[in-house]
Write a structure and sequence with these properties.
Elements (H helix, E strand, L loop, with lengths): L1 H19 L5 H22 L3 H16 L3 H39 L7 H8 L3 H12 L3 H19 L4 H7 L5 H12 L3 H11 L1
Helix pairs in contact: 1-4, 2-3, 2-4, 3-4, 7-10
Length: 203
């Protein structure tokens, strides 16, 4: 958090003042190596699979290690900490937003009028923000996510209920049964009827 990053920076300043003023430069350099190691682990945790960003920080960290200017090293570390703190705040915000999105989807995905604009209005989120970030949050775009969710529910209903294909189509939010059948075949390879019959044979 911002408060934690400010505290860490304050501690760095105190470490710098307490040690760099000593005659021996080896003490702060040793501290820098320890701090670099700790900060680098934080970089890996904050950016996980963002290897491009981690690579950028690799160069900064190597520069810190290879640079004999202790002032530069401490300032560079503080800048990294500020950046990591901001990244963590953004990640936390995105996690909270994605959770709200999932909850709203669970409550509304069977509504035939459910759309990205509907979702944005429900959550009081900018449509453009949601459109830009939905794929980043969930790995697929909104339409694909909703369609796959509906198809998974349909598969369960086909196996575990006696509802007709038309009834299932309406129940999961499709206006036209023909659209449901077409999309079901696209994502499963079978029509709903064939899927139901094949599952009966297995069971």
């Amino acid at each position: 958090s911002r408060g934690n990053s400010e505290l860490v920076i304050k501690i760095l300043d105190e470490i710098y003042e307490a040690n760099y003023n000593n005659e021996s430069i080896s003490i702060p350099r040793g501290l820098i190596f320890a701090l670099v190691n700790t900060v680098y682990k934080s970089i890996e945790n904050a950016y996980e699979n963002d290897y491009k960003k981690i690579g950028e920080y690799d160069r900064v960290v190597k520069n810190i290690i290879n640079n004999f200017d202790t002032v530069f090293a401490f300032n560079a570390l503080k800048e990294i900490i500020v950046n990591i703190s901001q990244k963590c705040r953004e990640a936390n915000k995105n996690k909270q937003t994605s959770q709200k999105i999932l909850e709203c989807i669970d409550e509304n995905f069977t509504n035939p009028d459910f759309s990205l604009a509907y979702l944005a209005e429900k959550l009081d989120i900018s449509y453009y923000y949601l459109s830009r970030n939905f794929t980043e949050f969930f790995g697929v775009n909104f339409v694909t996510y909703i369609t796959k969710k509906r198809i998974e529910i349909a598969k369960d209903l086909l196996v575990n209920t006696g509802l007709t294909v038309n009834e299932i189509s309406e129940k999961i939010g499709f206006v036209r049964t023909s659209t449901f059948i077409s999309l079901f075949k696209k994502y499963t390879g079978d029509t709903p009827g064939k899927f139901r019959n094949d599952m009966k044979k297995i069971n």
